[in-house]
Queue: 2 jobs
Job 1
Amino acid sequence: MANLKEIRNRITSVSSTKQITSAMKMVSAAKLKRAQDSIVQLRPYAEKLTEIIGNISSAVSTQDSPFSRDESEIKNILIIPVSSNRGLCGGFNSQLLKKANAFIQERLNPSKQNITILAAGRKANDYFKKTEFAIKGTTLPREMNDLVNQSEYEPFIAYADKILEAFSSKQFDRVYLVYNKFKNAATQLPTVEQFLPISIDKDETATVGEYIYEPSKEEILKHLIPKALKTQFYKAFIDSNAAEHAARMTAMHKATDNASELIKELKLTYNKARQAAITNEILEIVAGAEALNG
């Protein structure tokens, strides 16, 4: 059995760790509330924007858009995984990287297709820069780590414009977003989402003449499609941000509970060791007294 000093040191160490994990849990809970409000407010807007585009597309062809592409040949593919910059968030990053790898191996053909990874988040960037998919020879930035913790819309526009420009100039035939979608505080869903070319579900039931278009439908669609794509890009990061804080809050909650259980066990062990030490001292005193009497 460990001596009393070692047990006391362990209790002090675990108590200190518990205070840190408890503080991190509260910080993540506060950040989660803001991130959750952002994504809950953004989703209806993004869905309505897609609905409007689908309604207009039912009467106007989108084949002439620079963001559409012939599906006959898909050779160059860009994948954008969105991870976190920091750890201590449970399986948040490992699930994302596993999803991205599974998508590449099962849905794509790395031996015949040129696959490029533009990582967002230090964890994904550190992982993929050691692989054959590291970004090279394009007009795109090397990474997008600074976007992971952003909540404002403006910083995303410049990066989204570069990706749209790279696609319209035919550097890539497909672009996918891989991120953790926020469902609730306990559940984050690793998701692969096609970003480019545009995939619009046309509203075949839309009534012709339901809206008055000014200017023309073509002109509205020309401006709405880039806006919808930028919103989709922004939404993926906001979703991932909320999922990250939820995962970290859950992980720190479990760590705090585990620390509490460990402290209870250590205190029980300490009390047993202390009682054993006291008993040994009493036995030594009694034995000494008997020896003197003899």
Job 2
Amino acid sequence: MSEELAYAIITPYSLHKSRTGGIIARLISRSGVELVAARMFAPSAELVSEYAEQVVSPDDPQEKRIQELIREYVLRNLGPEPKSQRRRRVMMLLFKGEDAVRKLRAVIGNFSPHRRGGETIRDTYGDLIIDENDNVHYFEPAVLAAPTPAEAKTKLLIWAKYSDTDGGVLEDVIQYGPHEVPERTLVLLKPDNFKFPSGRPGNMIDFFSRTGLFIVGIKVHRMSVAQAMEFYAPVRETLRNAVKERVAVKAKAALERELEIKVPEAEQRQLGEMLGPLYAESQFENIVRFMSGINPRECDPSKLAEPGTEKCIALIYEGVNAVAKIRSVLGPTDPSKAPPGSIRREFGANIMVNAAHASDSPENARREMRIVDVGENLFRRTVEEFYGTA
């Protein structure tokens, strides 16, 4: 069976109610297909209209009444707000794999007035409330997805067409009070969360949702060696100054043990000055290899800027005091020193394999967002390359 592209659209209401993490956790851990791209959209009326025209389909296993409810929902809830014309946030997730459309749709689920289970995303996060007279009182699909590969292609090409104008790192989608000054900060869900399909990435997004901040950008990112070296350049300098004393103590102990000599204090300091930079550089290379999958010392210079082999998810959060709020939920660098209930205490293993990164200042956030380039349109590139329309 050949590979397919499949999509899941997380609705504005699901985003607003911070259900994003739970939905992503199920999609990644239960579908058996790979998350290959993600992009935030603030759909225009034109995008919504084109997409809505394709919603009702004879190939959809849901009854036509449900499909018409979804079409009405799309027209009413995905486009700009009627009064303010402020655009709503939508998250598009793109998956690839064998039989991807059916597998993803099975996790998302279909609506039925008589459903009794609780296995699918729509069972948990969607709502269809019908009264005794068969009138629909409330409808929320939670997630939108195509029923067939052919329809996935049609709809993905529509979203790809608008992905530059309506997608990327969103602007002016959140309303603030007159004295509120929002910040933006970057979060990276690190490669250790993607060694095998699991709910970890979504579960961590659930943790971050406690901040009350808003996701305005998302990207599935494979960090190049050049990006990793630039991104972690401040850590490189910190390591050079921080490890000298530790290296000196370890070197002294090793020499005294192996050579049975006494190393005086002055020589111990010299050992730190001499060996500290070498050890710091080795640690820095380990960080670059962890994030990119490639040892920088072994990387062909012509390939420094090529995407690495390791995957992470980059997120931009927006809101008042965003940097401090995210850092508080994340916890300190060393998971063993992180407080209970923090992400690094729950998901981290050690100082390097510590689940996630978050910017430590608004200035660093701007620098890091520039390096990672969350607005890069990998969504459109993936769609067009897969369908041969590039």
